[in-house]
TrEMBL record:
It comes from the Bacteria. Residues 1-31 are annotated as: Disordered. Belongs to the FrmR/RcnR family. Gene3D superfamilies: Metal-sensitive repressor, helix protomer. Residues 1-12 have a biased composition (Basic and acidic residues). Pfam families: Trns_repr_metal. It comes from Komagataeibacter medellinensis. This is Transcriptional regulator.
Amino acid sequence: MPRNGQPEKKQAECAQCVPQPDPKKVEQPHKKALINRVRRIEGQMGGVLNMIEDDRYCVDILTQVSAIKAALDGVAIQILSTHAKGCVRKAVMEDGGDETMDELLGIVRKLIR
């Protein structure tokens, strides 16, 4: 107890560190924004499909494919950042996080291929 006799307040846990019934289930802190981004990407995919069906110019289609890849990379980076700042940080503080760090490095390898 601190000097004032009051119990010490615990630091609020981040949303991604809140225990879940399923250890592989994590509540995304910016879930709504992520869903909106993925839905936009979904719309872009539909646009590419239409462009192919309409026999559009190859370079225009490839430009849209490139934009979709960049948008997906943005989603991946946001989720990766949340994972590193939440799940990985928690694992490192609790038990050194060796297994979690290996998992993180494995997914980074996949993302940069």
